[in-house]
Amino acid sequence: MGGDPRCPDCDVALEEADLYTGQGEFRVRTEDESDDVLAAVGVTKTLDVVPRRCPECGLVRFYATK
Ligand SMILES: [Zn+2]
């Protein structure tokens, strides 16, 4: 990895941010096949999401982790 992600506008390192959905974990659905048995029953894989916030302009980006 090339270090912390940076804001494309401000070119400063994005800070980790907390995300509240009120419905539990916030996840990303992917078309990738799941490695586990859920794929066999048609359940698509989901990825954990890490929110990052720019301290300068407030931009929030989400990074899906494998
Ligand atoms: Zn920014």
Described by strand count, sense and barrel closure, the largest sheet is:
4 strands, antiparallel
Order of helices and strands: EEEE
Count of distinct strands? 4
> What is the radius of gyration?
15 Å
Bound molecules: zinc ion
Count of alpha/pi helices = 0
Give the proportion of residues in helices.
under 10%
Model regions low in confidence, pLDDT < 50 over at least 5 residues: none
Mean pLDDT: 80
- Number of structurally distinct domains: 1
Give the overall shape, derived from the CA principal axes: elongated
The fraction of residues assigned to DSSP E strands is 25-35%
The end-to-end span amounts to: 14 Å
Structural class: mainly beta
Tell me what the structure shows.
- With 66 residues, the chain is mostly beta strands.
- It has one domain.
- It is built from no helices and 4 strands.
- It has strands at residues 15-16, 27-29, 46-53, 60-65.
- Strands 1, 2, 3 and 4 form a 4-stranded antiparallel sheet that branches.
- The radius of gyration is 15 Å and the shape is elongated.
- Zinc ion binds next to loops.
